[in-house]
Amino acid sequence: QQQVKQSPQSLIVQKGGISIINCAYENTAFDYFPWYQQFPGKGPALLIAIRPDVSEKKEGRFTISFNKSAKQFSLHIMDSQPGDSATYFCAANDDYKLSFGAGTTVTVRA
Amino acid sequence: SAVISQKPSRDICQRGTSLTIQCQVDSQVTMMFWYRQQPGQSLTLIATANQGSEATYESGFVIDKFPISRPNLTFSTLTVSNMSPEDSSIYLCSVRGGWDEQYFGPGTRLTVT
Fold first, then answer.
1. Residue A73 pLDDT > 80, yes or no?
2. What is the tens place of the pLDDT at every residue in B65-99?
3. CA distance linking residue A60 with residue A29, whole number of Å
4. A89: contact with B, CB 8 A cutoff
5. Taking the CB of the first residue and of the last residue of chain B, which one, N or C, has fewer CB atoms within 10 A?
């Protein structure tokens, strides 16, 4: 079964809006939580990552919020742009192995 | 981050045949991984390939079907053997950086007819 549950499956946002993608996990051994961005025909690209001792990490327009007690983390894309239209995967690391969420397809309408 | 290339980028193969996918990294790395991404789906780890040791396969993947070689610290191959249409997927290699991060190659798009 999927160790990392990701939602929503897809979302549509207007240019300039905020995209929010949520992930939840049960395995408390997970110690590193990356997000990947994948464009059609390309491999996943590491976007941003966080460790469980930090509650928030921001890089440009991308922010990860992490709630260790709830075992949840989310990606916020601020000021969404058409170039952000892609599939986003959350993941969690345990013993060098990544478990991926199901993915969220984000469409940014101009 | 590492620069990773894969060959071939895509292929169409007949059922019953085998295809070997190559993964080349621009720097020496200890840990390399092979993933499968079925159409429209997420990524599933096939195996971990460390130089100088046998690959470690995840549940549901076996060496006879997916033999892996890791001859040095910059190169690995994955063979998809005795292919069936169900093997049609994107096959991705990745490498582990110094802080748990993983970087992915561009993938090999395999179609089995």
1. yes
2. 999 999 999 999 999 999 999 999 999 999 998 77
3. 29
4. yes
5. C
All residues at 6 or more sequence positions from A104 whose CB lies less than 8 Å from its CB, including other chains: A6, A7, A8, A9, A10, A11, A21, A87, A88, A89
Per-residue confidence (pLDDT) for residue A1, from 0 to 100: 67
Which residues does chain B have within 8 Å of residue A31's beta carbon, measured at their own beta carbons?
Answer: 100
Residue A70 has pLDDT above 90, yes or no: yes
B14 Cβ under 8 Å from any chain A Cβ: no
Q: Decide: A106 and A78 in contact? Cβ < 8 Å.
A: no
Q: So what's the pLDDT on residue B99? A: 79
Question: Which helix or strand (DSSP H or E) is residue B72 part of?
Answer: strand B68-72
